[in-house]
């Protein structure tokens, strides 16, 4: 479990120390407030520290292979022109510092990104993360997955590396054995919402198998494709056994009925041992998560994070955090939805009074 992430002078953050919940973490803020940057930073650090690296390199603060892995991951995920572009521009500061703390202290590490000298460890990890993290971007990837990984690794493509990583997991074989019962339980509501099951042919192309026959994934509605992507990752056991899920705007392209299905699946994954991180500005999703947690998932350890944009240009983003949305202060992005509801009710009342006056 990732216990905390500290960002010092990184992109839009002058200083932020995020203390994460064991099960669910919800990051809320306006566009440009840094929601995705938090997801990508946490994901990149974990993905660069996966199991498989020689222990000698992990125990050395000068382990060039590990530093090279960190550099490549942050470059691939954030896609800056140069690594130094991730350093927040401020007077007298030319470096960023990031620190990761886990429930197992041997996984802890910290490093500096310098606009002049690249990446250097402040503290190197002495062990590797055993489970590959999963990152879901705002768009679905099933339609581009066939052949994408090999093309990405042999051609310069202007897409962030999370797409490559997720496509690799989508192409993994289906899980078998003891995990199948749990997987079927997780898949059931998703397959009900989609009206079918995700299948793949010998060429690696994905289809939605309906009662009436199979449908090419390109012909399936965008929102249902997002559910299909989640279903496929569950079916391959990529979302089991104390792993990590980072999901940017789960509500994107989904109608309210499907958002309800996604909210329940998120909480069931968290309950099953996946540490979930989502970035959103959907009041509907937040309310659905709150309702479900109150009624069915009250035992989950969760944290909410509010990102507050500065009033002046180039000011620092302020991060508030607490165990619930009530503890992170007012957020403009949510206030606008609430204000619109008030305006709508007022307009309906006004129209009703107007019609009443006309009738009299």
List keywords for this structure.
360 residues; alpha/beta; six-stranded mixed beta sheet; five-stranded antiparallel beta sheet; 10 helices
Rg (CA only): 22 Å
The mean pLDDT is 88
End-to-end Cα distance = 66 Å
Number of strands: 14
Biggest β-sheet description: 6 strands, mixed
* Basic shape: globular
Helices, by number, come to 10
Strand content: 15-25%
Write the layout of secondary structure elements.
Layout: E1 2-10, E2 13-19, E3 24-29, H1 35-47, H2 55-58, H3 64-78, E4 95-102, E5 109-114, E6 118-123, E7 134-136, H4 148-154, H5 161-170, H6 180-194, E8 197-200, E9 206-210, E10 213-216, H7 222-235, E11 244-248, H8 256-271, E12 275-280, H9 283-295, E13 302-308, E14 318-322, H10 332-359
Parallel strand pairs: 3-12, 3-13, 7-11, 11-12
Antiparallel strand pairs: 1-2, 1-4, 4-5, 5-6, 8-9, 9-10, 13-14
Helix pairs in contact: 1-3, 6-7, 6-8, 8-9
Describe the structure.
The protein is of the alpha/beta class and 360 residues long. The protein is built from 10 helices and 14 strands. Helix 6 runs antiparallel to helix 7, helix 6 (180-194) runs antiparallel to helix 8 (256-271) and helix 8 crosses helix 9 (283-295). The strands form 3 sheets. The chain has a 6-stranded mixed beta sheet with strand order 7-11-12-3-13-14, sandwiched between helices. 38% of the residues lie in helices and 22% in strands. It has helices spanning 35-47, 55-58, 64-78, 148-154, 161-170, 180-194, 222-235, 256-271, 283-295, 332-359, and strands spanning 2-10, 13-19, 24-29, 95-102, 109-114, 118-123, 134-136, 197-200, 206-210, 213-216, 244-248, 275-280, 302-308, 318-322. The chain starts with a strand and ends with a helix. Strand 1 (2-10) and strand 2 (13-19) form a beta hairpin.
